[in-house]
Structure formats: structure tokens, C-alpha cells
Amino acid sequence: MEKKHIIITGGAGFIGSHVVRLFVTKYPEYHIINVDKLTYAGNLANLKDIEDKPNYTFVKADICDFDKMLELMQKYEVTGIIHLAAESHVDRSIKDPFTFARTNVMGTLSLLQAAKVYWESLPEGYEGKRFYHISTDEVYGALQFDGTLFTEETKYTPHSPYSASKASSDHFVRAFHDTYGMPTIVTNCSNNYGPYQFPEKLIPLFINNIRHRKPLPVYGKGENVRDWLYVEDHARAIDLIFHKGRVADTYNIGGFNEWKNIDLIKVIIKTVDRLLGHPEGYSLDLITYVTDRKGHDLRYAIDSTKLKRELGWEPSLQFEEGIEKTVKWYLENEAWMENVTSGGYQRYYEEMYKNR
Ligand code: NAD
Ligand code: TYD
After folding, report:
1. Regarding the domain with residue range 5-193+229-257+298-318, which homologous superfamily does it belong to in the CATH classification?
2. pTM over 0.85
């Protein structure tokens, strides 16, 4: 069988590292090229267990660099692209929207244009090719507490600079299908949790703070609702959709698992306290209500019925099981957390990749 060369962007980040691991181990016949700029959120330690596999290549590069993207596609004769690289934290986007427009909008456009130029130069053109763009439910805006869910037909109403930049990139991906016939797919997923998430996001941040008896900054009244999915279930969905999803289509990914922030925080506290041998309720005093996030979306909730109906995907983990696994992982991997919070990983890899 002819070898398939697939670029996964953002593979050193949280979700990307799980997708890279799944593809490298499940498909030894594929060659996976992880293209990542290694921003503060990218960490090659997330892939230590697979970095020596013969079907894996890491390339440190910026997706905004069109020439480099084209060169990589030509060099490796890439037939598939799974695009996860992005700036992903809402709070950072509120402080620095330009970086989000640059990477999420211009970076996606540069990748699309490179794929267009390369694939259109081949005799078979777009046949057998696929550009799969990973997006978020945040592009749909915010729901009220009325039981409604985001479907694939929900109108885009992004509120934060992050979600506005992701919405824009989704539009560009669809435009490349409609204008040039590029075989694209977009998926919109709910909040992910699990190992290797950068501790600026709620769940790893709070686990780490509880461990170190630091305050837990709850935005507003803690009443906002998020819909949580275990990251490996997202990676499984990406695998399925990359192989079986309908071109030019959109799929929502989520586990019908809504939690009010404050209730979720209490579950995290209870789990960490139990695993550290503290009495129940020991860390509740760390809860600290702080000024709300600007423009804080009230509620996200994803309807993933289409994905179940058409491709048979369902989450494999119950939330209780997922949270237990996640808390255990962060408690057992203190060296990873220490490295990430101290920034040590960046200095190390800067040295290592300086001359490549
Ligand atoms: P992350 O912040 O953990 O990782 C992002 C990765 O992209 C990092 O490795 C970073 O180095 C890399 N990157 C950033 N800018 C780059 C650039 N210019 N060129 C090359 N690489 C660059 O993000 P994540 O949480 O893993 O999210 C991955 C994707 O999934 C994003 O597109 C995000 O919008 C989407 N998503 C995330 C969630 C979630 O809950 N985390 C939910 C739905 C969708
Ligand atoms: P986050 O993990 O940043 O994901 P997103 O904003 O993409 O949903 O935040 C999840 C929820 O937790 C969100 O409603 C904001 C809230 N939150 C806090 O209350 N305190 C915090 O320190 C953080 C990081 C988030």
C-alpha cells in the first residue's frame, strides 16, 4: 500500500498531542508530520512516548509561513491535513486579539492556500485529499438556561476575540471548498479535558492550585455552564471523521455533559482532596469569587446527534470516570506540571531545535 503522509498542525498542544499519538500508534502505515511552532502552549514532552516511532516526524514551523507550509507539503507529498494549531485561550484573546487574528485567521488561510497551490499542481488534483479543520462550539455564541443546544445549523454569533477568530477561520475553510472545490471538513467541539492540558484552563489550573493550597479564582458567580468531553473521545471522533466524514460537511462533537462551573469545581475539589488523603471539604475554603471575564458566554451545549446517527460515534467515558482519570494523571505527573509552570520546557526545546 502507498504510504499516506499526513500533516497534523498543533500536535504539541493539548488536543493535538492526543490526535498525533492516536494516529502514530493506530496507523503504522501512515507518516505523521507534526507541524508546530512551539508557542507557550506547545510542549514536546506531551509526545515523549511516541517521538522515536519511525512513522513520526516533528517540524518546528509557523503555520503563517506560507512558503514553509508549501515546501513541507511538496517535500512529504502530503495528502491529508488535520489542522489544530491555534491560539486557544479566551482570556489571552481578550488581552491580545492580534495574535489570535494572526494565527487563527491568517495561519489557517496560509495553510489553505499552500494546500491549494500544492494539490492543484498535481495531475489528480484534489482527488484523495482532505483538509480537516478543528473548530470549537464557541463560534455559535452563547445559550440561555433554556435547554436549547447548538446544532450544525445554529447561526455563528461569536463574542470573544478567540471565538471570532475561530469563526473566521471556519468561514475561510468552507470558502475554499465552495470556491476551489477543496475537500474540506469542519468540526465544532465542546470543552475538552484530560491529560496534557496547559494549566491556564479551568480544570488543570484548579487541580494544581488545590494541590498547592492556592486560591481558586471563580469568575463571576460560577454559574456559567460548559459542556465537557474527555480529550481522547475527541481524538477518536477526529479519527472517524477524517476517514469517514462527508466532504464539505460539518459535525458537532460533544458528550451531552453540561456542568455549571461551581458544581464542576466542587467535583474537582472533592476528587483531589480524596486522592490526596484530605478529609471531605478540606479545600472548599480555596474557592475565591473574582471579577467576571469580560463578555463571559453564559452557556455552551452541543448537540452531537448527527455524528452519532451518521457515523456511530459516542463518548466512551462517563464524566465521573474521566475526571477521576484526569485528576490522577495531574497528581501523578507533577514533574510535567512543574516543567510547564516554570517554563523550563521552552528553554530546553529552544536549545534542541535551534539549528534544525
Ligand atoms: P493548545 O493551546 O493546547 O495547543 C495549540 C498548539 O498550537 C500548541 O502546540 C501551539 O504551539 C501550536 N501553535 C500555536 N500557534 C501556532 C502557529 N502559528 N504555528 C504553528 N503552531 C502553532 O490548544 P488545544 O486546546 O489543544 O486546541 C487545539 C485546537 O482545538 C484549536 O484549534 C482549538 O480552537 C480547538 N478546540 C479546543 C477545545 C478545547 O477545549 N481545548 C475545544 C474545541 C476546539
Ligand atoms: P476555560 O477553561 O478557559 O475554557 P472556555 O473559556 O474556553 O470555556 O474556562 C472554562 C470556564 O471556567 C469558563 O466559564 C470560564 C471559567 N473559569 C473560571 O471561572 N476561572 C478560571 O480561572 C478559568 C481559567 C476559567
Report:
1. NAD(P)-binding Rossmann-like Domain (3.40.50.720)
2. yes
